[in-house]
Specification:
Mandelate_racemase_N_dom, nine-stranded mixed sheet, three-stranded antiparallel sheet, 379 residues, TIM Barrel, 12 helices
Length: 379
């Protein structure tokens, strides 16, 4: 017979968004505390705008978050935007005025506790969207802080499984004509990438097929060639084009339909042999559950900014691993730390390497960064 008292996990959470629980510590133990959070933003037009099937990416936007502690250790994150010049400043305002104030005084080691507090705080206004971007920015800064506090890279904290990450180059944007496509594909091969990804869906299927054939001719028969539709197609059109892409030996078919349409993903996966890659436009670990459990994805692809940062991407990867589904990042940079630790990693996405030769691939792979926190190689 029970005592009649509530179990702590069953008690109502306070209205301020906190969990109502605090880590238990001996009274004499010093607790590190977050003291201040700095947020800044910028947006400048791209010198060379790029296009996918749905949008023109014409801005280089950036929101930077730095978390300071009473022990003098800090951690930072950088969140990039490709369009909407106002977005970095809007995100900075959400972080500065809504998220940052409620975690001042928290112990930065309790990353998941802070994540839960911020999710509850933003639930009323909707956590998906820019609120998730803000939570992700804080999550990444916290991981960076932990790595710097211990003078180790974050992949070491997560428990790395590999020393190098296989990588491909995302270079085949739709604003490029066929000669332009051929040039960037050749450059990627010269830099040692294991494959290239190109956009599709900007015109009729015949245009896609001609562009794919041109790239394949440049990269050769053995390099991986991925195609990305950026949610452009209906189910019927995705099925039609997917059959054509798989006949050309494409490695995966990315975001063929609306990201939210789990049923269409499942049906496509049932009727196509080419793996469906998806996930960059899903918010939080739970948004991946039905997609993975329903076999609607052949390569899971979270985005650090939308999925919730290092913590959620790592959890998504482990969930996918339990179902035997490979993991490939959307984007590179700090994502390399998650990729290093997951058992099901197959690829990291990258742009072309810097022209100055400061970054070099080893047998088509990025070596793990050795600096503390979330230091990374390009991406």
């Amino acid at each position: 017979m029970g005592s009649g008292r509530d179990h702590p996990a069953e008690r109502d959470h306070p209205a301020d968004g906190s969990t109502g629980t605090q880590p238990h510590r001996p009274a004499e133990e010093h607790v590190v505390k977050i003291t201040t959070i700095e947020v800044s933003s910028s947006a400048t037009p791209k010198k060379h705008p790029v296009r996918d099937a749905l949008q023109l990416l014409d801005y280089d936007g950036l929101t930077t978050v730095t978390i300071h502690t009473d022990e003098g250790v800090s951690g930072s994150s950088r969140t990039y935007f490709g369009r909407m010049p106002s977005s970095p400043a809007v995100l900075a305002k959400i972080i500065d005025e809504q998220l940052a104030p409620v975690i001042i005084g928290e112990d930065p080691a309790f990353i998941r506790l802070i994540r839960e507090k911020l999710r509850r705080l933003t639930d009323y206004q909707g956590t998906a969207g820019l609120s998730s971007y803000g939570i992700s920015a804080i999550d990444q800064a916290l991981w960076d802080l932990q790595g710097r506090a211990l003078s180790v890279p974050v992949w070491q904290l997560l428990g790395a499984q590999r020393t190098h990450i296989a990588t491909y180059a995302m270079v085949g944007w739709l604003e490029l004509d066929v000669p332009g496509l051929e040039r960037v594909a050749a450059a990627a091969m010269e830099q040692g990438f294991l494959g290239v990804k190109m956009k599709v869906g900007g015109g009729p299927l015949s245009t896609d097929l001609a562009r794919i054939a041109a790239v394949r001719n440049v990269i050769g028969p053995d390099a991986a060639l991925m195609v990305d539709a950026n949610q452009a197609f209906s189910y019927a059109e995705a099925l039609r084009r997917g059959k054509a892409y798989q006949d050309l030996g494409c490695y995966w078919f990315e975001e063929p339909v609306a990201a939210s349409d789990t049923d269409a993903h499942v049906r496509l996966a049932e009727h196509l042999d080419i793996p469906i890659a998806a996930g960059e436009n899903r918010y939080g670990q739970q948004a991946f559950r039905d997609l993975i459990a329903g076999n609607g994805v052949g390569v899971v692809q979270p985005d650090l900014r939308r999925a919730g940062g290092i913590t959620d991407c790592y959890e998504v990867g482990l969930m996918a691993a339990g179902f035997g589904i490979p993991y490939a990042s959307h984007g590179g940079g700090a994502h390399i730390h998650v990729l290093a630790a997951l058992p099901n990693t197959i690829f990291m996405e990258s742009g072309l390497l810097p022209a100055d030769g400061s970054v070099q691939l080893v047998d088509g792979c990025y070596p793990l960064p050795t600096g503390p926190g979330l230091s990374s190689w390009g991406g």
